[in-house]
Amino acid sequence: MLRRRGAGGGCSPLAYPTKVGSRERNSHHGRLKRVDNSNSRAKRLLEAEFDVIAERLHREAAVPKASLAGGDFLDVAQGIEHQELARLSASRLSERAKRLQIALSRVSEGDYGVCSECGTSIPPQRLRAVPDATTCVACQARLERGAH
Question: Rounded to the nearest 5°, which phi and psi values hold at 123?
């Protein structure tokens, strides 16, 4: 669930995630029910990390941007550098949020912990180290070798 905040909201046009809840609506009775999943712990951890990233993105977007008009050359250069670093940080956080959303979708679909390349189980140690992993170590290494 990424949502965009437009110029009217005072934020840059980057996509900002909204918080993810750990409950689903029961369509028959309109009541909330707990998601019953063998990966509920992983889901809670993924949601918690996603929420931290969402909050950080919203906090950073709320920081007023410094004016680059006026001032000496070094002040302007430092201002530009600061804004570029903030944009890069927001971009990395947004990408991380997208990967976490994919992992949450895989939990909901029952595919979390299964390599998307070869179909084998991803070792729990890898999932603890990289909770949004979609491939086992062997397939990830093969993909990285092919990318270079």
Answer: -55, 140
Distance (Å, whole) CA 84 – CA 86:
5
Same domain, 57 and 125: no
Query: Do 20 and 68 fall within a single domain?
Result: yes
Q: How many CB atoms lie within 10 A of CB 16?
A: 21
Other beta carbons within 10 angstroms of residue 61's beta carbon come to: 16
CA distance 24 to 35: 6
pTM for this entry: 0.65
End-to-end CA distance of the chain: 32
| Rounded Cα distance, 43 and 57, in Å | 21
Q: What backbone torsions phi and psi does residue 32 show, to the nearest 5 degrees?
A: -85, 140
Residue 125: give the domain boundaries: 114-148
The distance between the two most distant Cα atoms of the chain, rounded to a whole number of Å, is 65
Query: CA triplet 62, 67, 70: central angle to 5 degrees?
Result: 170
**pLDDT tens for each residue of 79-97:** 889 889 989 999 999 999 9
Same domain, 70 and 141: no
